[in-house]
Every structure is written in C-alpha cells, then in structure tokens.
Design goal:
With about 150 residues, the chain is mostly helical. The protein folds into two domains: about 80 residues, no CATH class; about 80 residues, no CATH class. Helices cover about 85% and strands about 0% of the residues. Helix 3 runs antiparallel to helix 4. The longest helix is centred in the middle third of the chain and has 29 residues. The chain starts with a helix and ends with a helix.
Length: about 150
Amino acid sequence: MVRSISNSAGSLLYAIGQVRKVFWWNLKLLVLFFSVLWGCSVFEELEWLANSILILQLLVILPTWRYLVFPACGASLKDYIAQFLPAGIAIGISAILGWGIAGMLSGLISSWASLIVSVAIILMFYLVISFWINRPWILMISELFLLLRRK
C-alpha cells in the first residue's frame, strides 16, 4: 500500500526526463529490499517479511523526497507527504477495519473465503472513505472509467 501511494516520485522523474535516475534508485531499492527480506527469511515467518516491507517502505519515504522529489521540482516534505496522505489515511482505516472483520470471520469460514470477504470489505471501506476525504481522486477515476467505457 505504501509503495503504491509513494510511487509518484518515479512518474515525476519520468515526466522530466530523468529516467536513469529512476533506474538507479530502483536498482538500489531492489538490493536493499532483497537484502532485508533475505535476512528476515531466516525467521521463516510471513509476518516478519510483511512487517519488514512496511517498515522499510516507510523509512524510504524521506530519502525518496530528499534525493528524487526535492531536486526535481522543489516540493517541500510537507507538500510531498500531503499529496499521498488522503489515500494513506483511507487505506489505513480500511485495512484496520478489514483486518478486524477477517479476524472475526477466521473461525467461521475457510481462509480463502475470509480473504475474499476481507478484500471486498477493504475495497468498500476504501471507496467510501476516499469519497469522503479524497473526493477529487474518486471523481477523476470515475471520469476515467466513463471514458474507457465509451471506447
């Protein structure tokens, strides 16, 4: 979730022609993530891997701004974080609610059914919360779908 929200730095650099900078940055991230995940695989627990990815991605936000976004457009850290804060809040609240509901369903239905129901609930909450706190994004996505349907 965090990776997809903060991925706009790559799009910015592609737009201004700094493709090589994005390539080398992503190569460094690949080595960093692989090293951390390989180190965590010793514990043989999926929770360690998932938590490591989340923590590492959160730790990369500041360097991404400092070395990619700020030099490219001069955006402040406050502006950079503000651009993905609404989506982050919406997905965070949705994930917590979905996780809670999945926990309640875990003994009642199969794990696959629980996963499908949880994902559906998370998506529903995400759309509702996004409509409330990030309405311009929802309207833009709606317009995009309408344009695609017309073709």
